[in-house]
TrEMBL record:
Residues 245-261 form the Prokaryotic-type class I peptide chain release factors domain. The lineage of its organism: Eukaryota, Fungi, Dikarya, Basidiomycota, Agaricomycotina. It comes from the Eukaryota. The keyword GTP-binding does not apply. InterPro entries: PCRF (IPR005139), Pep_chain_release_fac_I (IPR000352), Pep_chain_release_fac_I_sf (IPR045853), Prokaryotic/Mito_RF (IPR050057). PROSITE patterns: RF_PROK_I. Belongs to the prokaryotic/mitochondrial release factor family. This is Peptide chain release factor 1, mitochondrial.
């Protein structure tokens, strides 16, 4: 890894020597941008060299006959060594990792659906939805409810929310996977702990893991209409469009006009139904947006698998049968199984605050694995 960093710094030095202080021509713009992009790496490299020099200067004091001097030197040695380890294991990988191909997506579409579990399933789904609403607020993202289906017990059978903001998709993509919760349901009179799961799946169909209670949680890239046009995710020849009367609790509008819309993408079998909006035009627009998001998520997952065929960490996170996280109410603990991280503050996670600790750690783990791939490919 250090050879890669040093190579980048040599390249940066060459660019600096070639450029003048004033912008000479439009041809210099890419190189100036490259200098800007490597500023943080240069700072980290300078810190590395400084600390390495300090360690060399401390070496004689570690053998000092004076116990006080030797103790102070050992303390300094431990502190500086810790800084070097952090630079090597965290800072350099994050700075060397290529920019995410999904970094510019305008947001994410978060879909939650309850499955087996009845009332307890829908009540916990409502808890998860509130967690992501809080998380969006803490990150200054804009959250808009596209649709939800509230049951009589106050839980939510299914919901779709769109979350817009910088970095929303790149952060929320780590939520894809199977979430497991262990707690005493409010409907349990005997005080027994029940285990339920939440699964993140790309497809629209339900998934059953034995007799475990299951819901699905889906994080999809949110696309604007112009993005869909650029991506060419589908053609209208591949779409089956059906309109029908909306179903609901009643009222003047319900069941009098064919405002509900159902789309089927024939090649993949993906189906999207939408009836929450007042007009067929609005429901149609929403349905196409959800369909585009699902197709984009499939595309991104496929590209990741192709690019990193020798490593399966991210593929596992997209494998909807893989358990990624456990929420244990009795022990106030949340554990992310992909990186072995446990947070002994379940309440803070569900409030959205400590969820950032988990997503940051997953981002760091991803950066390290990308760096390992780069080193393998370069033979470093």
């Amino acid at each position: 890894m250090l050879r890669v960093v040093e190579s980048r710094m040599v390249e940066r030095s060459k660019i600096q020597s070639q450029l003048t202080e004033d912008l000479a021509s439009p041809d210099d713009i890419p190189r100036l941008r490259q200098l800007k992009d490597t500023e943080s790496l240069q700072t980290a490299w300078d810190e590395w060299k400084t600390n390495k020099k300090l360690l060399e200067e401390l070496a004689p004091f570690l053998r000092d006959t004076d116990e006080t001097m030797r103790t102070l030197a050992e303390e300094d040695h431990q502190r500086i060594s810790g800084s070097l380890t952090r630079l090597l294991s965290e800072t350099f990988p994050s700075l060397l990792a290529p920019r995410s191909s999904t970094a510019d997506l305008p947001g994410a579409l978060l879909e939650l659906k309850s499955g087996v579990g009845g009332t307890e399933s829908s009540l916990f789904l409502a808890t998860l939805l509130r967690m992501y609403e809080r998380f969006a607020t803490l990150n200054n993202w804009k959250l808009n409810t596209v649709s939800n289906n509230i049951n009589e017990a106050g839980g939510i059978k299914d919901a779709i929310v769109e979350i817009k903001g910088e970095g929303a998709y790149d952060t929320l993509r780590w939520e894809s996977g199977v979430h497991r919760v262990q707690r005493v349901p409010v409907t349990e009179s005997g005080g027994r702990v029940h285990t339920s799961t939440v699964a993140a799946i790309v497809s629209y169909t339900g998934l059953f893991l034995g007799d475990m209670e299951l819901r699905r949680l889906q994080v999809l890239p949110l696309l604007d209409e112009k993005d869909v046009q650029n991506e060419q995710l589908y053609t209208m020849d591949e779409i089956k469009l059906e309109v029908m009367r909306a179903r609901g609790a009643g009222g003047q509008h319900v069941n009098k006009t064919e405002s509900a819309v159902r789309l089927t993408h024939i090649p993949t079998g993906i189906t999207v139904s939408m009836q929450d909006e007042r007009s067929q035009h609005q429901n149609r627009r929403r349905a196409f947006q959800v369909l585009s998001a699902r197709l984009m998520d499939q595309k991104i997952t496929r590209e990741i698998a192709e690019r990193r065929a020798t490593r399966n960490s991210l593929v596992k996170s997209a494998d909807r049968s893989e358990k990624i996280r456990t929420y244990n109410y009795a022990q106030e603990r949340v554990t992310d199984h992909r990186i072995g991280l446990s947070i002994m503050n379940l309440s803070s996670v569900l409030e959205g605050d400590a969820l950032r600790d988990i997503t940051d750690a997953l981002n760091q783990d991803y950066a390290q694995k990308v760096m390992e791939d780069m080193l393998t490919e370069d033979g470093a």
